[in-house]
Structures are given as C-alpha cells and as structure tokens.
From TrEMBL, chains A, B:
Pfam families: LacI, Peripla_BP_3. This is LacI family DNA-binding transcriptional regulator. It comes from Streptomyces wedmorensis. It comes from the Bacteria. Keywords: DNA-binding, Transcription, Transcription regulation, Transferase. Gene3D superfamilies: 3.40.50.2300, lambda repressor-like DNA-binding domains. CDD domains: HTH_LacI. InterPro entries: HTH_LacI, LacI/GalR-like_sensor, Lambda_DNA-bd_dom_sf, Peripla_BP_I. The lineage of its organism: Bacteria, Bacillati, Actinomycetota, Actinomycetes, Kitasatosporales. PROSITE patterns: HTH_LACI_2. One of its GO terms (molecular function) is DNA binding. Residues 18-74 form the HTH lacI-type domain.
DNA sequence: TTGAAAGCGCTACCAC
DNA sequence: GTGGTAGCGCTTTCAA
C-alpha cells in the first residue's frame, strides 16, 4: 500500500500483462470463446479452426490466467493452506510432508505454505482467512485457537485440520500421539530392570509440544511399577551435556530416554566421557531411528516412529472438504515401537 | 473444477461469508465508508462515531477482507512466491529459511511457499504465474528455465531470483558457491600431504546440484598439485558404506571429502570397521559442522559453511522489486572454511 | 457456433 | 464527511 496503487505507470519496457481480452482481440473472437477454448468447456462446441486461433493467440501473448480473478468469479478456490511457523526438521517429517503435498496436488488442490512466524494466534488466523482457503491444515507448530477456527470457518474454510498434539475445538484433530513414544521407551527401560529413569527435556524452544507429552507418556508407563521418572533439561550443546553427566551419579539414574537420537548421542558421549558405562551403569534410548545412531558403540537403542502415509492423510483432507458436516475425525498418526540395539 | 462451481448451494448451516457490503448494511453506511475505515485511509476523514459503528459491525459479522478481490482491484499483490520442490533439510538451511521468511514479512510481503514437486519446469512456471506474485524466489531445487522466467515476467513478476547453484538467464542469481566447499576441503587435504583424494557423491536424488559443484571445486583445488581426485558414489546406508570401505585399499586412497558430515560419519565408521585407521591411513573431512561430528572419535574435521543472513537477502529481494531495471545482481551466498579436528 | 453482459468483492475516484 | 459507481479479470447464462 505504500507505493502508488493504481494502474502500473512503473511498468517499464515490458508491455502490460496480457488478459483474456487481449487473447480474444488477437484471435478475433469474444472473451467468452477464449474461456471456453482454454478451459475445454465440454458443454459448448467450438469449431476446430477457432480453437486453434485462440490457442495460438494465447501462446503468442504468453497468456496465463489470473488465479485470483478466476476464484473470485467461481466463489471458491481449491487452495489448501498449510501454516508453518518453522520449517520442520528431520528426515522423517520432511518425507511425510513431501508425500502429503504431492498427494494433495494429485487431488487437484493448490497447496500453499504460509509462514506465520511471530504472529499471534488470532492475527495469524485472520491472515489465513484473507486467502479464502478451502481447507487449513495446521501443522501444530502454528497455534490455532477456537476463536481462530471460528474466523476461518466464517470466511469459508470447509475444513480445519490440526495435525499435532493438541485437540482444538471444532477441528478435525489428527493427533500425533507423542505420549506413546515416551510410553514405549519407558516401558522398555522398566522391563529391562531400570528403576530411576531420566527423561531428557530439550531446552530449545519449539520442542515443548513434543517433549511434554513424551514425558507424560513415560510417567504413565512408570506408574505402579515402582520406577521413578526424573525430567532432565538439556540444551543441545556439549557443555550442557557435560554438566548433566557430571551430576548423573548424584541423581542415581540407571536409565534415560533422551527425547530423540540426537540428544541421545550427545548425552551418551558425555556419559562415557564421565566414565559411566552404557548400558552397564545406565541404559540410553533415543527416538527416530536415525542411521547415525547405529554407527555409535554401543549402538543406540531407539524408538522407531511410523508415520502415517502422506497420501492417506491427503485423502482424509479431501473427504473433510467434500463432506464438511461429518463428525470431526480424530485419529492417531503414529505408531511407536522400540528398536533395541546395544545401549539399553 | 470437478464439483458444482457456481454460488454455494452446499454451504450448510453456516451463513454465507460476510462481505464489506454486509458490514456496510449492518453499520448503515456505504461500502466505500467501510473500506475507508477498515483501511485507515488517510486521504479522507471519517467521524469517530461512524468509525466505531463500522468496526463493531465488522467485528460482529466476523468480517475478513478477501485478498483476491483486493489484489485484483489493486492490480498487484505483495506476494513473494517461494517454489519448493523438497523441504530443505538441515538446521543450517532451515534457520536461514526462517530468517528469510520473517524478514520478508517485516517488509510487508506475503510469503507463500508453493510446493512444485513433480512438475516440469515450464508447467510449474505457469502455475506460479497464475498467482501473479510480485517476486519469485526459486530455491534452486525447483528448476527454472529461461522460458519459465519469461513467462513469469510477462505475467507481472517484477523480480525473479534464483537462489542456488545455477545462473539462469534473466534472473537475479544468488549463488551458493558450492564449489568453494569442495575447494577448501580438497585444499586442506592436499596441504596436509594427501595425494589420492576421494570425493563422496551421494546417490540420493536431489543432491546432484550440490555434489556436482563440490566435486568440481575439489578438482580445481587438486589441479597442478600432483594430487588426484576420485569420485566415490555412496548411498546413505550401512551396506553401501561397507562396500565402499571394502574397496578402499584397492583404490589406494589416503584422504576423502565426504560431501557432508552425515556421509562422513557413515563412511568413517565403515572405514574403521574395515581396520583402516583415521586419520593415520586415511583422512576424512565432512561439511556442515554438525554437533554430532564432534562426538565421534576421532572428532570429525569439517567445512563450516557460513550462510548469508536471511534479513540481508530479504532486503535484496525488496530492492529488486522496487527497482526491477537495475542490473541483475549476482552474489555469493556462502563462505566456507575448514574446521580441523582430529580426523584429518 | 459465437457474442453480449452480469457479477464475484474490493477500492478509489468524483459528486454531493 | 459520506455515497455512488466504475472496473480489476474471469466464467457462464442467455440470446442471437
């Protein structure tokens, strides 16, 4: 809005952007005919010579239809909006994410990622609503309040789907049951005889939504077994790991679930440097089943997380769009299982 | 296009999406006034009571302006389109990416990521052009031909910026000089007395655009020094690494630049398992300076890559948009330096 | 088989 | 101060 907004006096050498009217003029037909030809409208028959003239004119001018005008006229779009606060990291997640995008594309949706870092929940929801997406799939890092959902639905979104750990009112909640990850890890440690179990909580921001439920899951698993669970804050650097390892024996820990394989590798190295034997004195288990964990000695035990297929999820989105009134679905997106190697 | 496209007979319980006309009706004013108030248009003075009535009406209806209609009217948008074929991996890249998005937002652009996996170059360019972005910043994974650039510019894009390894005609090319990475790595190996230098080439798809230039850079560095460079294809799994290590002595290699730290860790483990001492018999150097590399024994030498600030790049984009006629800028986005630890 | 025209939601001129 | 209204580019009904 800061620059001159009317027409385009600052458009230089390049001639103005061609519209369907330009194509019509060049082809010597009406705009209606142009539309029919370029959209292959079946309800109307256009002679082959006309079709060719229109196509050639469009080609010559480099005509590309204006999506905004089109969806304004149609009254709806097929845009699926994916708000992302942070680009998700990790091969597991990004693989899933690519599949998901690809599958939505195949279903003829336009997938648009909208980075919403540093906006408050409601403000962000308004920004998304301005784009009039047919569906919003929140990846969970971007927060979404009941109020935000209301705004989106009022502005025409036919499906709001949250893909995370929380369960927001009025949405289809696809839950990544992070608790299960902590649960299977802790169960494994308990069953192999550990009694004082640490659970690493990353201090890095943005991970709380995973680490919290994982800790809770671990607590659940320990309940009634006589084992205790101890939260262990840890920054992802060597200094922090060293400090934690130095206090290890004071805390009398004999097992640890280290949030994921990366934190596990960091901590395991620090423990070994401190002279604490793994798995003899302390068992260590990570999560994500990274290849790198297999390269350590001892090889790192881990929780493998099987994520639902992107294609499957895309179909869920499609169904939610087509039948907005079906009961909000709520389903778990991941399954967790222990892969025992040598560190536990 | 597949479903009934006119009006919205399938919109159920929820009343129709409110427009500025609805707000005007409820507030008892004209649509023009609504627009003035909600946009804080300074050229026109509206009485305070009227302003309040309009605001309350908008609030009550849950009115959110329609971005497509707005930009159609304005004749331009402030959308910056970021086509992404694959979600970029690695903390370095994603940090940069987040900064970049955030900075563009601050400059009042709407940042939209458009996943274009599985489209051919020209087809993708048309899809982007339909959205009429003011700028397109290609991350390099999505290919962009001279033809594609032409389409985008014809459809009103004021800046097309490629952020990658290639230099596409007609764009502002921000080059990530991957060659430098290979060059400093190889130089380091040569200077520390290595003569038969392997360069790992990942077999995973999508990495060629990095690995190719890195290999070339290594070749450049070796030139005239008497050292030879040997390309080593490697898949990111233990089997492939084991096979490569088994052939190691036949190839008479005494140093290797392993593409990045992850491949380096994989390979180093395989070499050690094969009884090849590192760095005694063979030096190993990776790239990216991952924390995990420091945890190995020997600690992994690496090439640290300093990426330009996202904010800086966002300003470049802004300038390119405001002055589309300035000479295409071409600048290097990264600087590389060797971090020598124990593996080389 | 083709054309004329209405109208999607919005903003910015020009009257009053 | 406020309202009427044209028109951005497109699709689709209705008429010819």
């Amino acid at each position: 809005m800061s620059q001159s907004t009317d027409q385009s006096p600052e458009r230089p050498a390049g001639r103005a952007v061609p519209t369907s009217a330009d194509v019509a003029r060049l082809a010597g037909v009406s705009r209606a005919t142009v539309s029919y030809v370029l959209n292959n409208t079946s309800a109307v028959r256009i002679s082959e010579p006309t079709r060719r003239r229109v196509r050639e004119a469009a080609e010559e001018l480099g005509y590309v239809p204006h999506a905004a005008a089109r969806s304004l006229r149609a009254g709806h779009s097929r845009m699926v909006l994916l708000p992302t606060a942070h680009v998700p990291v990790g091969p597991l997640y990004s693989q899933f994410f690519n599949d998901f995008q690809w599958a939505l594309r195949r279903l003829d949706y336009t997938v648009v990622q909208y980075g919403s870092v540093g906006m408050r929940a409601e403000e962000a929801a308004r920004a998304w609503a301005e784009l009039r997406p047919v569906a919003v799939v929140s990846l969970g890092e971007a927060e979404l309040t009941a109020q935000g959902v209301e705004i989106l639905k009022r502005s025409g979104a036919r499906a709001v789907i949250t893909l995370g750990t929380q369960n927001v009112e009025g949405t289809h909640a696809l839950v990544m049951e992070q608790g299960r990850v902590g649960e299977v890890a802790a169960t494994h440690l308990v069953e192999t005889g550990r009694r004082r179990i640490g659970v690493v909580i990353p201090e890095e921001p943005g991970l709380d939504m995973f680490s919290g439920p994982r800790l809770e899951g671990a607590r659940r698993a320990a309940e009634g077994t006589g084992a205790t669970v101890v939260p262990l804050p840890l920054r992802y650097d060597e200094e922090s790991a060293r400090a934690l390892a130095a206090r290890w024996r004071d805390q009398d820990l004999d097992g640890v679930f280290a949030y994921n394989d990366e934190y596990a590798m960091l901590l395991m190295r620090a423990l070994q440097d401190e002279g604490i034997s793994v798995p003899g004195e302390t068992a260590v288990i990570g999560a994500d089943d990274l290849l790198l964990g297999r390269l350590l000695r001892p090889r790192l035990s881990t929780v493998a997380i099987d994520m639902v297929l992107g294609r499957e999820l895309a179909e869920l989105v499609d169904r939610a769009v087509r039948e907005p009134d079906t009961a909000p679905l709520s389903r778990s997106l991941l399954d967790s299982r222990v892969v025992r190697r040598e560190s536990s």
